[in-house]
Amino acid sequence: xxxxxxxxxxxxxxxxxxxxxxxxxxxxxxxxxxxxxxxxxxxxxxxxxxxxxxxxxxxxxxxxxxxxxxxxxxxxxxxxxxxxxxxxxxxxxxxxxxxxxxxxxxxxxxxxxxxxxxxxxxxxxxxxxxxxxxxxxxxxxxxxxxxxxxxxxxxxxxxxxxxxxxxxxxxxxxxxxxxxxxxxxxxxxxxxxxxxxxxxxxxxxxxxxxxxxxxxxxxxxxxxxxxxxxxxxxxxxxxxxxxxxxxxxxxxxxxxxxxxxxxxxxxxxxxxxxxxxxxxxxxxxxxxxxxxxxxxxxxxxxxxxxxxxxxxxxxxxxxxxxxxxxxxxxxxxxxxxxxxxxxxxxxxxxxxxxxxxxxxxxxxxxxxxxxxxxxxxxxxxxxxxxxxxxxxxxxxxxxxxxxxxxxxxxxxxxxxxxxxxxxxxxxxxxxxxxxxxxxxxxxxxxxxxxxxxxxxxxxxxxxxxxxxxxxxxxxxxxxxxxxxxxxxxxxxxxxxxxxxxxxxxxxxxxxxxxxxxxxxxxxxxxxxxxxxxxxxxxxxxxxxxxxxxxxxxxxxxxxxxxxxxxxxxxxxxxxxxxxxxxxxxxxxxxxxxxxxxxxxxxxxxxxxxxxxxxxxxxxxxxxxxxxxxxxxxxx
Length: 635
Hints:
Strands 2, 3, 4, 5, 10, 18 and 19 form a seven-stranded mixed beta sheet that branches. Strands 12-11-23-22-21 form a five-stranded antiparallel beta sheet, sandwiched between helices. The chain has a three-stranded antiparallel beta sheet with strand order 1-8-9. It folds into two domains: 91-277, Alpha-Beta Complex (Penicillin-binding protein 2a (Domain 2)); 285-633, DD-peptidase/beta-lactamase superfamily (Beta-lactamase), CATH 3.40.710.10. A hairpin with a 5-residue loop joins strand 8 and strand 9 (260-267). The protein has 22 helices and 23 strands. By secondary structure, the protein is an alpha+beta fold. 35% of the residues lie in helices and 21% in strands.
């Protein structure tokens, strides 16, 4: 039988073919003429058995290695690669919550959110080569205002979205949407942006927004990410946790370009709480404009003013100069303007209302007068003969008026700001007892000086009520009678903030109540829950109401016959006190503190013009303008 699988079977079978029986055929003639077959021994030498075994062994080893690697990839590393693949396909996106709105006391919006068309990039989804990235930026730069080719600062492995361009026009947005459809990792989104309706008129009260820093991320909750914004200073900072709301999240499937295909799961964001302030935005604008005018008129740059409801401590308006436009920060505004704000040596970001401290000058005299009445040092019948000053040892402490004011009682002392009266009432003489340093410090602290008022804003200063111990520790000198004299007229090392002075004056005219200054009226959550802020009474001074009335009448005399007579034009009765405080290294500070109506106070104001020289010249005009408007529009 023929073995059909044997390629040499024809040769084996050839001998059985009977062609040798053909007529005339003889195989003898061909003997010796064929190709000789090789010997068996030479064929064995050509393919050695050992070589065959080596080849087979090598093939077995290589196969085993490949099989092992395949099993390791499929079994041991399979889960990891499945997770990586799934991670590239499924994304967790953060949905920012709408920030809570801020309204004034009449319901007018002062801080809102506006849509901001922005070009956003997820770096890890973008092209992988530097050449492709540059081409991407070059194409985008033809449409939007970005730095073409500036890719060095981007972490191209990050999945955190970054904003390449903001405030796109509708035309730019449409063109970029078309372009981004073929550019991996790029999209046009609507981002919320904070807008401050009053601009620079309420910057120091409302604060502003700023991008979180790496240090912020270590301290804040996990809801914050790189490039998020948070409140900086003012209301935005203090109430950040309620204004921010709760971010939402969603799992989305993306394609190879990083474009969303479908949503698997989502949690909706919760909008932030809306805040209604005690601040009257119209009054705020009037106050800021008045301070600005007096600064320009007196060629000054720095000042502060605050308006309170003396019956509750509610802040109705405040101003600090120089000021700034908070919108520049929330929009990532002009870098040159931002740099100028930060480099300004007059410190526009500094809130002088509660963080600045100054010698109060003569505005402290009603407080000293009240202390003297309470301690029985004086009565309404007590008089001092002002001859131009008093001696303390070999040093002369002068009145502001050459030759003095003559015979002076408490009413005249406050109305005309007679220094000699308060030198003697505060420090005494060899023949006459005064309050003395300890009682002066005691009463100043009782009215809230040397400690924060408790206003819920970061950076409030305590001020300073100096003592002999403080002077020895800090100046390395003993306390002298002259220090007590200086303290009695608001000079020396006594330092107060405008807000502290306003809080103390409120106690003088509301029956002795020290209220915590506040600016929040109502909180309204996203679900409609309302929380009304109740004014907080810090303490009620056990003082004689008759003495309070004496001091109030003396401050009324300041307007009728004294240094604030120009306030007589206001269409409501005003009372108050001017002050001119010596400032180290510069011209005197100008102060005014006062209120209206005299019989039932509704508005209390403190005005400070740094280096304004004289209270009646620089500070009183601000009060006159604001009081006039308030009397005509709010009484």
